[in-house]
């Protein structure tokens, strides 16, 4: 019996050496999770399945399990756009030719078709973006990077917050002449875009009127009348203020203003008849073939003030933009995949999904730092990063192996000692057997 006990000890020590050796071999493997060998003692049973009593001697040791340790590894920045690490619970979900696999190794690339894949060609799973620009939650798909140019957007809303100096006096030069700075008090321009992404300059000139707390606003686009490119006559609107310096909306009658921008019920100016134009070969201004925003261009100046301070722009936004080429990618902690374009705009093109399991030890390792679902693991719970118990995404980073090299080297020494000790057990039993044989 002692031979078998010693032999079981040799098997156990060899198993421990193999597990430790595998851990050490993968100390630099991205997303690798170390393992440990777990052992249990053995006792023989009687024919009825019960132990022989208090004097029973064990029959050695057996390998109870080789468990994987899913403790997190260090997360290190790489600077690569599609590198990802999970900070917390969960796995990346991959589609490997129709087979679902899971991994913590987040080194991903873009293949020739724009799909996000790992080094083995498995597709990263996530949520696509619908036509309305919103993420389609709940439907997993292979994430793909759209490399086409960003569609231009014609300007539909301009928001301006300005101050006009209440101490200003009416210009000494009349009538208004955009080429003569003495004929107006203040001016600035705003870029606006047509349907083809062509940029135009909207110019606004402000003139202090003789009437108290009233200014005239002269508006042109590219120096032309917005509705008639052949004319340089600007659109003219009155901009009234209250005695406290805020905009007097009650004095702004809603409706079309003759020779000026129309005014909506919300007291927001609106340009409905803009004809995008350019100079033709003859040097004449004419329509350029593009159109303005179908709903017109709104000009929100409700934040305008007239205080005793220098006339100035305080804040300004406009929602149009030109076309742009893909220039970069980034991923935030919620797994949103952003495409950056040369026109300075960003666009969400997908969201990475994360899977988690009730019993991580039940996952089946299949190599390549990948696992598969099993009956013991339970079905995956899949969702967006940073929701529920799922971890966050660290973009441009990778998770290191969680192998503790110092601890593994100590385990090597222990396993070697165990192996030698069990070998000594067999050697001693052999010596005893030889003694008994010599006595006969």
What key phrases describe this protein's structure?
440 residues, mainly beta, Tick-borne Encephalitis virus Glycoprotein, domain 1, 3 domains, 11-stranded antiparallel β-sheet, 5-stranded mixed β-sheet, 2 helices
Largest sheet: 11 strands, antiparallel
What is the number of strand segments? 30
Structural domain count: 3
Q: Work out the radius of gyration.
A: 38 Å
**Beta-strand residue fraction:** 35-45%
Note the gap between the termini: 21 Å
Q: Could you state the CATH homologous superfamily of the largest domain?
A: Flagellar hook protein FlgE
Q: Can you identify the CATH class of the largest domain?
A: Mainly Beta
| Bulk shape | rod-shaped
User: What's the CATH architecture of the largest domain?
Assistant: Sandwich
Our count of helices gives 2
- The amount of helix comes to 10-25%
